[in-house]
């Protein structure tokens, strides 16, 4: 799997072990963080300890960032590095940290009147010290300010090559241009090349940038005939285009044009260096609905589309979580007539399984603004298993309800695939333990709270829920599903905090047999 650069004062003690259903949980006592800071990333660990990135602000949105080190038993080492340790000319923006070989690399950029300059700093893990900043490259303002330049860093599997992709900041009606630079692990430049697309910026949207193990670069774009027809229900005038950079040339590999359906986005999953799977949710009604799942496979050596399937969901899948009765029957009838569809499902993960099969996960997500407050809704999870030709083997929905005003960081879920089982980890009301249809209790509006593990059988799609950690064990702490790091192949480190008092925090280990 490719890495990307992205974006405590801790005491873990009195470990409690809760072993059930092939899962073991360890968590320690609550610690109090003296500053109004929260973790935004768990960077990793080595033989010296654990490394966690903190940021100021209620949601970690502050500019000041601190890397904190912990001993191997997750007790504090009292060592901290301020990553913004000097006054900069220009606007400071951190791109985050990643562990690279025997060091941690911090990449950031500064915005000035003339452009955007990228820098890096190394953190020596033996001495836990920060090196002076060094320039990586500069993006100069063209006919548009460089703050609008899109950039991505990719790191090869062997950690010997760093690739920087960025767009040249020009106007919408000008030709879309990019620059690709490659570096070694110490940011010594190896190559630098400019490329132009045969389209203007206003009709081209960059969706995925990825490399295979050969370090061949691929770019998936969504190209519109015109930005004015995005909501044209009768003529979906856009297509997905897959480009490859080979022999210093940018070439179009293949084009995917939706078959008179809305195909909002596509996930890219490498089957191997020569074969790519594309998966996405499609709708016959509108861009934000879901009627079925699209799957195709691309031969990366010649661009041939070797398979392409539009799998429409059955009315049974559509009504899976509905209460039996007249309302359900009417909804099914409207679905069969093409007047109803699943709303607000967002494509999340596509996971490669054995025999080149795929597991696609989607979540029902939306937000609503009222009276100066935004409520974030993260509801049901859809899981679909596809065979090697893109046909549905099984499809199921798992009921979930996280409705939280003002902040979404406690919502959603984290998936883990182990052997023939999928584990979905998320905050859930314990009243929903046996839920299969009908209304769900919201995690945030009831005292009966827990951190849930839903076990999905990958052979059948059947599932059961397990109360992994009950709220009274966590003493007011709520787990953040998106904040995690793998300690080893079978041990997941997660983090939680008190919603009402963010300074109260704790860590949790989940072990998979």
How would you characterize this protein structure?
It is a single chain. This protein is mainly beta and 513 residues long. It has a domain of 125 residues. Helix content is 4%, strand content 57%. The chain is built from three helices and 40 strands. The strands form nine sheets. Strands 2, 3, 4, 38, 39 and 40 form a six-stranded antiparallel β-sheet that branches.
Please tag this protein with its features:
mainly beta, signal, 513 residues, disordered N terminus
By DSSP (H or I, 4+ residues per run), the number of helices equals 3
Main beta sheet: strand number and arrangement?
6 strands, antiparallel
Shape: globular
Query: How many distinct beta strands?
Result: 40
End-to-end separation: 22 Å
Strand fraction equals over 45%
Spans of at least 5 consecutive residues whose pLDDT stays below 50 are 1-19
Judged by helices, strands and strand pairing, the structural class is mainly beta
- Which radius of gyration do the C-alpha atoms yield? 24 Å
Give the % helix: under 10%
The overall average pLDDT, rounded, is: 89
């Amino acid at each position: 799997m490719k890495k990307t650069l992205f974006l405590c004062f801790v005491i873990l003690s009195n470990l409690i072990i809760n072993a059930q259903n092939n899962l073991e949980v360890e968590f320690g006592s609550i610690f109090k963080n003296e500053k109004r800071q929260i973790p935004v990333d768990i960077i990793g660990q080595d033989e010296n300890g654990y490394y966690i990135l903190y940021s100021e602000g209620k949601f970690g949105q502050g500019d000041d960032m601190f890397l904190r080190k912990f001993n191997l038993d997750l007790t504090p080492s009292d060592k901290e590095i301020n990553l913004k340790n000097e006054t900069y000319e220009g606007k400071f923006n951190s791109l985050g940290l990643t562990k690279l070989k025997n060091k941690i690399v911090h990449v950031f950029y500064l915005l000035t009147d003339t452009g955007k300059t990228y820098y890096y700093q190394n953190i020596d893990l033996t001495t836990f010290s920060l090196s002076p900043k060094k320039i990586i490259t500069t993006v100069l303002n063209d006919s548009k300010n460089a703050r609008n330049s899109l950039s991505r860093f990719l790191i090869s599997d062997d950690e010997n090559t760093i690739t920087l992709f960025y767009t040249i900041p020009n106007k919408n009606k000008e030709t879309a241009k990019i620059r690709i630079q490659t570096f070694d692990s110490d940011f010594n430049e190896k190559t630098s090349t400019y490329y132009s697309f045969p389209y203007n910026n206003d009709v081209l949207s960059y969706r995925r940038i990825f490399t295979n193990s050969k370090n061949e670069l691929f770019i998936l774009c969504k190209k519109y005939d015109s930005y004015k027809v995005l909501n044209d229900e009768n003529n979906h005038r856009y297509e997905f285009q897959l480009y490859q950079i080979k022999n210093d040339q940018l070439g179009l590999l293949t084009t995917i044009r939706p078959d008179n359906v809305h195909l909002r986005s596509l996930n890219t999953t490498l089957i191997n260096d020569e074969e790519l799977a594309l998966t996405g949710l499609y709708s016959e009604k509108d861009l934000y609905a879901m009627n079925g799942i699209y799957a195709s496979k691309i031969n990366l050596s010649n661009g041939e589309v070797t398979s392409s399937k539009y799998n429409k969901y059955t009315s049974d899948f559509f009504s899976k979580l509905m209460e039996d009765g007249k309302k359900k029957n009417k909804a099914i009838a409207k679905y069969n007539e093409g007047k109803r569809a699943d709303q607000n499902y967002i494509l999340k993960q596509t996971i490669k399984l054995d025999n080149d099969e795929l597991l696609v996960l989607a979540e029902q997500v939306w937000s609503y603004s009222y009276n100066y407050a935004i409520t974030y809704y993260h509801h049901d999870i859809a899981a679909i298993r596809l065979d090697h030709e893109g046909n549905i083997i099984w499809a199921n929905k798992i009921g979930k309800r996280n409705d939280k005003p003002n902040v979404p960081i406690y919502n959603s879920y984290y998936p883990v695939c182990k052997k023939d089982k999928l584990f979905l980890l998320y905050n859930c009301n314990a009243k929903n333990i046996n839920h299969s249809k009908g209304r769900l209790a919201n995690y945030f509006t009831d005292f009966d709270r827990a951190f849930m593990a839903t076990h999905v059988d990958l052979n059948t799609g059947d599932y059961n829920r397990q109360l992994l950690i009950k709220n009274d064990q966590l003493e007011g702490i709520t787990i953040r599903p998106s904040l995690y790091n793998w300690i080893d192949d079978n041990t997941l480190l997660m983090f939680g905090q008190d919603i009402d008092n963010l300074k109260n925090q704790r860590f949790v280990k989940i072990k998979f047999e």
